[in-house]
Specification:
- By secondary structure, this protein is mostly helical.
- It has one domain (3-96): Alpha-Beta Plaits.
- It has helices at 3-25, 32-46, 53-64, 90-96; strands at residues 69-73, 80-84.
- This is GHMP kinase.
């Protein structure tokens, strides 16, 4: 990818981050999933190691089952896929990704905290 194209993608990703911030601050979640999804697609274009066929498959299965968008979080071989979806579609998404361990979360206004998670 040409450097100019890479910069264009990154500028759009920065713009999306500000859009997402504005949406959250205004208490609007209507565009949250679409912004996550666009960012996912842009980020995947930046480098070949950002995603792989398995992660792409999980992402597409979640989207087909009601997710509005998603994001890959954390480090390789130990990260998370976060999806945004209407509550009534959560079970469908979990069922479509049965081989993965679901971790529920909620937004918190307390800031950074140390969290320990150990699957049973």
């Amino acid at each position: 990818m040409r450097q100019a194209d890479r910069r264009k993608l990154m500028r759009r990703m920065v713009q999306l981050a500000f859009e997402l911030k504005s949406e959250l601050e205004a208490g609007r979640l209507d565009n949250f999933g679409a912004i996550l999804d666009e960012n996912w697609r842009l980020k995947a274009q930046l480098a070949s190691g950002i995603t792989d066929p398995q992660i792409d498959d999980w992402y597409q299965r979640a989207m087909r089952n009601g997710a509005k968008g998603g994001k890959l979080l954390g480090a390789g071989n130990g990260g998370f896929l976060m999806f945004f979806a209407p509550q009534e579609r959560h079970a469908d998404i979990k069922n479509s990704l049965a081989e993965l361990e679901p971790v529920e979360f909620r937004f918190d206004r307390n800031g950074s905290q140390i969290v320990f998670y150990q699957p049973q």
